[in-house]
């Protein structure tokens, strides 16, 4: 049931504050100001390396997880798309934790990768939405997301719920590795508690994003830029756009612009820049300005400070609430999803059932 929404995708975007709160509820212990995981039969302190494997949107959660886990827990993380991991003969050692991420829990390549990790003797954890799925049954440690059924082929609420669980995993690893003080953990708990409200404030920009969508819908190519954890989000923005609007889109790490993609820029190319104010802001903005000098049609997604500093010469700005960098990917996911959605609606494509795609990819 779509309720009063025109598409499942829009309904699922709007559900995010509730389902992310629901997911966080099973990991946050507000009274103790701690982040907890379900009981497990192994000791996270013994984890020396992490291998994260997933496909599509879920693989971008893995990439964001790499930033979080390496920064907070000082544990080395490798991220692969499952179809590559299976066949590249990766070096797997028993002190590794293997992590799979999947909405359906049935994606053929991810399931095969999970079995490969188990056969190599790894302990495995799975961030999975469907609790009765094959992956949910086969992982050693099930870390459920509570997104509820996701109907739209374009993943939205599963993505942000996966991020919430990934943050919980990163914090637990960090504590187990002796890298996190109780005060630092308390701060993270508070920031995570702010997520649902911040997501609601992001959703409030829906109409404004709908109004700018026709400008993007006319483009042949669209580029997305981000740095740090906003780089995988740029990849996610580009995937979402091509998936449902059929416009060619690419995401780049901002610093890569001048290593090639800037050659694509002219005054017909929209450039969606994901840049929360903070330590990485100035660098991303300088990459953005190089593109603006070549005529790029910039949409800057930032907070009030960022927009005050760099909002000039853009075709549009979308103002996000000012949030701590650790939760920014959850909040900035919302305008990225809404933009893809409204561009697709403006183009008149079948948003919930895009051509050539299946919700669950159970063959390789
Ligand atoms: O069910 P899974 O999370 O394993 O699915 C993985 C991908 O097929 C999926 O995220 C796909 O990329 C989405 N259609 C993206 O919106």
TrEMBL record:
Domain SIS, chain residue ranges per copy: 40-179, 212-354
Main location: cytoplasm
Enzyme class: transferase
Localization (cell): Cytoplasm
Catalytic activity: D-fructose 6-phosphate + L-glutamine = D-glucosamine 6-phosphate + L-glutamate
EC number: 2.6.1.16
GO molecular function: glutamine-fructose-6-phosphate transaminase (isomerizing) activity
Function: Catalyzes the first step in hexosamine metabolism, converting fructose-6P into glucosamine-6P using glutamine as a nitrogen source.
Protein name per the record: Glutamine--fructose-6-phosphate aminotransferase [isomerizing]
Source taxonomy: Bacteria, Pseudomonadati, Pseudomonadota, Alphaproteobacteria, Sphingomonadales
